[in-house]
Amino acid sequence: MVEIAVMGYGTVGSGVVEVLDKHAESIAGRAKEQIHVKYILDLRDFPGSPYEQKFVKSFDQILNDSNVKIVVEVLGGLHPAFDYVKACLENGKSVVTSNKELVAAKGAELLKIAQKNNLNFLFEASVGGGIPIIRPISQCLAANEVVEIAGILNGTTNFILTKMIREKTTFADTLALAQRLGYAERNPAADIEGLDACRKICILASLAYGKHVYPEQVHTEGISGIRLEDIEYAAAWGGVIKLIGQVRMMENGKIQIIVCPMFLSRDSQLANVDDVFNGILVRGDSTGDVVFYGKGAGKFPTASAVVADVIDCVKHFKARKYLFWDDGSPDYVESYLDNRVSLFVRASTDHETLAFQNVENKLGPVTRLFRGAREPGEIAFVTRKAPEREIRQGLRDLSGLGVQIQNVVRIGEL
Amino acid sequence: MVEIAVMGYGTVGSGVVEVLDKHAESIAGRAKEQIHVKYILDLRDFPGSPYEQKFVKSFDQILNDSNVKIVVEVLGGLHPAFDYVKACLENGKSVVTSNKELVAAKGAELLKIAQKNNLNFLFEASVGGGIPIIRPISQCLAANEVVEIAGILNGTTNFILTKMIREKTTFADTLALAQRLGYAERNPAADIEGLDACRKICILASLAYGKHVYPEQVHTEGISGIRLEDIEYAAAWGGVIKLIGQVRMMENGKIQIIVCPMFLSRDSQLANVDDVFNGILVRGDSTGDVVFYGKGAGKFPTASAVVADVIDCVKHFKARKYLFWDDGSPDYVESYLDNRVSLFVRASTDHETLAFQNVENKLGPVTRLFRGAREPGEIAFVTRKAPEREIRQGLRDLSGLGVQIQNVVRIGEL
Predict the structure, then answer these.
(1) pTM, full prediction
(2) Is residue B305 part of a domain?
(3) Which ipTM was obtained for this model?
(4) How far apart are the CA of A187 and the nearest CA of chain B, in angstroms?
């Protein structure tokens, strides 16, 4: 029998305890050991819970119990999660977590401690919820060079964008709906400003290329600036707007990495990933494109990914899983302004013909877009592909020439 | 350094050798060992090949070399592959294969020998080519009960159906095109009659439910009977025709398993899996639906999956991978005639009104379908859901009542 502790009895934590209980027999068969939850750490009381006897309020009780071999961390946030996880790994306990903030900020450090102590630090549930992605990237694609990873990594924003596209509702109204349905939190900033997606692409990039990428290094834009006009122009262009996290290795050994809304062609394998679903495209030099699709969050999908890691941990007490990446460095990420992109631009002007003369003078040839209910003086176009810095300079110049930029969205090539 | 042998230097075998060579450094990093191809078994000569020194014509040379720890079997077919693989596993060599025919026919037997000798028998490449699916099912979904697996498992037939749907070409013309493009073999029977898909769903079913399912136990229909009329009716119904392999666990402990063309609603997650791509839907009780999508065949996708297994094997010389299933039994598969389905039926008659009276007498209420260029006397409808045996009996009765059945396609609920 293996004894474990679960830190945090929120949505995911209660799901983990329930899955371990409900599937105890089949899990024991797969792990070749009974798995027993000895402690649940939570500061709250849960009177009447069938697990009432397991609750503890002191982390030290878990840390000092040498029978506890695996600790599940589902507290979320950096503090106290980081200190707790570090202490566990320094004291002979393997750790399984769903905490993307922790892995994105401290992954390299914690993996190093785990390696030194010959323990496992596993985090399949931190990206994609119940979609297997960490393990396929690290194992199945071992014989590939990963050319690129791009994904719809946040269900809340994908739900909002899907609704806006289908029902022509505004961002504010759709966010309010998502909050009523429980798909968005009361404070939705981490989702809608792209931070959640940023943490996930950082984890995938760190794993795929072996070097830590920190969220602060990633240019991140959310979806709160997307207007219905932009969605209509995307449709006119032949696509949809999705919030994409994307990373590519460049020939100079640096990476391009960004989180932002993008125009995606309707033919893109990610264009049909709708509602709260996530989709992750892994482009390998041998496999070509492989796409993983499913619910990226939710109590039981996430809990089952955590439990699968616990099982894997039990099966590998002696053989460490080779999840590892090195520390990052400040110059590892290329400035997004040096990436070559096309931009969709929506602007207003008093004189359309003159405006387009100026646009083409500053930006070279552009593809003009139209929509049905265009406001007077509203213009929209897609630029040619060039380093973003150049196009942005052109756009700044235009504002002195009677062209007011309203919004800019990158064109994704996926 | 780990020494391996590759048996078979066809498309996949040459790809395996090339991937191991091209990515030698990164593979050694991931496996923590250099991997060296010592022998390549092939009866043909490859003069001028950079690997000329490695070729051998005698299997015994590999078998008797105790330095060879892993053997890659990419010969295809049952003989001599089965005897060779069995001999390897009985003589201390782990085996990695892409041979679906071998795994579908002999998986339980070979897994048992591997287990007894504490060796690995791995076959990620046997299903889905470069799409990771065996490992995600066996590991990531360990904390799930698999409710159902359904997939588009054969790229050749999916290419043909996609072309027929998009370009309104006949089956015969499209097959000829697929042969010219190298997507279909000169003798295409294994693909178009569904046998290839059948072997793959057998492997997935065996893995998911722990008990061997043999191809002979699975009712299998191919796509050679699909006419453009059927494709037009599928469009009128709101969907497309796909060749699907599907398995479900029933409450009585038996499984429902079938390979056949199905009508899929356009909303289905598999309806947009087009051309030579494969898509596999795994429905778990905790994860919900997870879909894996990518190229299911091809030299480098398949080779990279084989090489990933070789790496995994090197990393797990001491800790066996827990891939295992038991022997099958004759009564494990429910007769497909007992499955509850709706059927699409296309028929001809001399008297439409009378025919529909008879149809509804024999089959209960049906949904009539229409297409633009309908032939005189052509009728088409979708039945209610009932045990297939009942509906088939009704269809037989109808043939005595002036309704000639032309084709029947099951309605997929995916």
Answers:
(1) 0.92
(2) yes
(3) 0.88
(4) 26
